[in-house]
Amino acid sequence: MRMPATIRAPRRAPLLQVVKSAVATSAAWLVAGFLIPGPPPVFAAIAALLVVQPSLNQSLTRAIERSVGVIAGVLIASVLSILLGTSTWVILLTTAVALLLAWALRMTPGTANQVAISGILVLALGTATPSYAVDRILETLIGAVIGIIVNLAIVPPVAVAPAHAAVDELGDALADALDRLGGALESPRTPSELARLLDDARAVRPKLEAAEDAIAAGSESLTLNPRSRRHRDELDALTDLLETFRPIVTQMIGMTRACSERYDPTIDEEPSVPAIADQLHRAAHDVRLQLRRAEPPQTVAQRSADEPAALTSQLTVARPSSTHWILVGSLLEDLRRIHETLTESGATGRPRP
Fold it and tell me: Which residue in 74, 141, 238, 266 has the fewest CB atoms around it within 10 Å?
């Protein structure tokens, strides 16, 4: 039986991440148990498990959230237990007070939950004496520090490769959409084919959003990462490429929508339309060329790095007929914008400011 999609991630986490979590949790348990005799070091193990995140920046953030939440929760539980005892209703009161305090201080959801969980664990697992509270705070700090050290020592994760893959997928989809639009202008299309053409064009936008998310994750993975220097330029190039593709996606979708709404089987008889179709194929070529130029240096060296762009001259068109002038004018304006974006990006390696 297949597991419900609600409890399954779209893809597995890297196995290395699982190994690091296991190592950090085990090390925190052993170290905290050795340094702080007494109850099992549950707080240390949980802190280490939560702190090991996909990036060092996230690990540091989670360590701060965990530490602040534990300190607040332990203090609340200790004060209430000293004043009111450790009855069941005191545990429930501690939970409510912890959540209200977190809300009043506008804590993050992770910190707020940690305040309540820590208060419950203190009252449920031990006697909430001052020494017990101090030990649990120290235990949490030990676990958080060990989690950060393990995440730093065992191949700090860098998420630049997924960003490359997402931008490549976006560029390929954009180039294919431009080619399909050019093909639709070269030979007649049925209404169903035009509808599918528009659906395919609109499907490029989610790939743009996925590339944005992947680049953001890549940037996050480089923050506080000792390996960031060798990857920063690579990620900056991908960011520039994404900014080049962004307006072209918008213009490509607009051109496809205009073609779908105002299409006429005789459009290919318009003198300027074959030239527009040719320019669209050239634009698709240049989008793929931009992708190749943004590849890692060792890959670019294996290709023809000096391949020229195809959009090298302005398009001269004849006056359109009264039947098609709206569609032709719309296509020409968007094509002009695509031409400017690609030629200026190709000349400088970066999009226009």
Answer: 266
Task: Read off φ and ψ for residue 295, nearest 5 degrees.
Answer: -70, 160
The residue among 249, 247, 269, 250 whose CA lies nearest residue 328 is 269
Contact between 309 and 344 (Cβ < 8 Å)? no
Number of H helices, E strands in the chain: 13, 0
Question: What string of H, E and C letters represents the secondary structure of 220-289?
Answer: HHHCCCCCCHHHHHHHHHHHHHHHHHHHHHHHHHHHHHHHHHCCCCCHHHCCCHHHHHHHHHHHHHHHHH
d(CA 238, CA 244): 10
Q: Which helix (H) or strand (E) holds 103?
A: helix 88-104
Q: What is the pLDDT of residues 108-142, one digit of tens each?
A: 888 888 888 888 888 877 665 677 778 888 888 89
Question: DSSP 3-state helix, strand, coil percentages of the chain (rounded to 5)?
Answer: 75, 0, 25
- What predicted TM-score, i.e. pTM, was given to this entire model? 0.64
